[in-house]
Design brief:
159 residues
């Protein structure tokens, strides 16, 4: 049986996740970014080894791909993730603006292995004063100033 292009790249992401899980150098997640049929970047989760809670496979791959493409957006790219992206990764993916995301394992599979993000989705929906991490709004007088400067800036790079 011949694998489709999407299956081929998803298999690559899964292999990265397997290697990461076996090595102990990261969690069981892998991601591959492809443009025009060519791999632009691939990465696995490095949260524990980099001591960076944002070093998920998708975020690591996005960082590599953007650096390689010399662009903060992934126009025309497709992201292949070994598992359904968590809320943080999904946010990063949307900011990077690829044309598509493909993933293999559903989030319920990751949850059974101890990677349950459902609490984050619930927290986002809660009023700020009901969240587990206390969130405080201090409306300082100058808070809008950076946005006014940005709105009036003639030579800004939109993103």
């Amino acid at each position: 049986m011949k694998l489709s292009e999407h299956e081929k790249f998803l298999e690559m992401a899964i292999k990265l996740a397997e290697k990461s899980a076996k090595s102990g150098k990261g969690g069981p997640f892998g991601a591959v970014i492809v443009k025009d049929g060519k791999v632009i970047a691939k990465a696995h989760n490095t949260v524990t080894t980099s001591t960076d809670p944002t070093a998920h496979a998708e975020v690591n791959a996005i960082r590599k791909a953007c650096k390689k493409l010399k662009n903060f957006q992934l126009d025309g790219c497709t992201i292949y993730a070994s598992a359904e992206p968590c809320p943080m990764c999904l946010g990063a993916i949307y900011w990077a603006r690829p044309k598509a995301i493909f993933y293999a394992a559903e989030k319920k599979i990751a949850a059974r292995a101890g990677f349950d993000d459902s609490f984050i989705y619930k927290e986002i929906e809660r009023p700020q004063d009901k969240r587990k991490i206390k969130t405080h709004h201090l409306p300082l007088k100058d808070a809008p100033l950076p946005f006014k400067i940005w709105a009036n800036k003639q030579d800004k790079v939109e993103y």
